[in-house]
Each structure stands twice: as C-alpha cells, then as structure tokens.
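#structure-requests
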Amino acid sequence: MTNPTTSEVAIALNGFIDAHADAEVAIAALCDFIRTRHTDDTGSCRQRCTAVVELLETDAKRAAQVMHHVLRQPRGEFLACAVDGLACLAAANPVSPASALTY
C-alpha cells in the first residue's frame, strides 16, 4: 500500500473541471481511482478515498466542480457509484465518509 500523490488525485478529479463535461464519465473515473483491483485491499481504497477528501477539503474550487457534476446526476446513479467506490472505506474505517459529500 502506498499513498497516492496529490498529482494522482488531481488527475482523478480532472474530469470535473469542465462544467459541461459528461458527469457520469467524471464520476466513473473517480470511482475507478478509488476502487482497487483486489477486493480484499481495503487499505488502499481507504487511502485513496482519504486523499480525495483531503484534497477537496483544501481546494474549494475543485470541491465545487465535483459537486456541480454530482448534483446533476440522478440520485440512483450517484448512490450506485458512491456505494461501489466507498464501500470498502466504510467497511475498513469506522469513521463515516460522509464528510466527502458535504461540499
């Protein structure tokens, strides 16, 4: 397990920069970044999710870009992505990832 670099996290969030970009593609790319190939590797998933949350907490502009796209999605699609991408965080970390959704 290695922590993702800030540039790796920024690249994962690049799909949210353009306000007219395909929100579904941007959200899927973020979920792909967070999700690991090994279902038992919850530590890496947790590290990636934490890195995304930490970057969004320190970059209000990027957080607003992400929320712009997330809020444009039907609730079901967003929740499916969130459950898929963040489930291992919730399982491995008793602290709720809800702070990731407060932007």
